[in-house]
Amino acid sequence: MVKEVDRRKTVFTGSILCLVALLLGSNTQVVAQSAVPYSSAVTPTPFVTPSLKWTITNVTNQVVEWGWGTGSYWKANKSGPVTFEIAAIQDNEVHGQFTIGNLTLLTNDSRIAIELVFSIWFNSSIWFPGLVSHLDWAAVDQEATASVSGWMAGELEIRTSIATKTYIYHQGDNGNQNTTLIYDIRTGVLLEAYTEFFFFNDYHLGLLLIRSTRYFTFPALFLVGITTLVVVVVLLVFIHKRK
Description:
globular, 37% strand, alpha+beta, two-stranded antiparallel sheet, 4 helices, disordered N terminus
């Protein structure tokens, strides 16, 4: 009788461990389809959403249009938050919910780079690093260098350290964009930025990273809880019938 009880306990414990292993295994499934490498720190999973937050260190006093003729505008204040919650990485692009000032929308990192001028800003540019860069830094350097041409000719300085990757751009005689972007070399997350662009008006924006976290999504937690409860009930019924 004692051996039978022990056997049932072993079956029950083993089943629970299998469930936990299954859930943990599911948590490693990456919601990403990208030919370039991104850090696991910014890669979402079915259960986890990466969340990034910056504080505004400097900002224009202008109301800024998001896109051309979209009807969307943003206005932000110094020390206000900027956030990006990453939902997916697909086709070499980071997608998610972005918030700055009074504007919140679903967008991608390249669009953010264009709209905030966290790039070499022109339609011929191929370099839109934005808030999150991929980790093929040699390719990023090539894209940045290739974008410094034509109308956007100027000076680009690239600095590499153990911890950071820095891009400092000053446009030449054709305009007056000045942009500095500093990235965490391990995660690709933008640590600090300052950009100014005097074309239609006096635009400038500075950011400083204050938080990079990964949190469990509520639907995922709910699903895990319900699944665990169902499995436990089924196992208890099974054990009861075996008595």
